[in-house]
Amino acid sequence: MKRQQRLTTYSRCGPCGPWSARGISEMRSQQTTLHWLSPSDPGLTPLKPVRVREYQNVMRKTSERRKQMRKRLRIGLFLIAIVVLIGGFKIYKYYQNHYVSSKIFENILERKEYSINKEDKVNVEIAIKPEWIPFETDKPQNQNIELDKSHNTNIVLQQVWNRGNDIYFSFHTTYDVGYNNGEFLYNMIINEDRTYTSAGSPEDFVLTDLQGNGIHAGQTGYGPGSDYSFGIEPSEYNKIKNGFKVKYSGMTLYEYSRK
Question: With a threshold of 0.85, does the pTM exceed it?
Answer without folding.
Answer: no
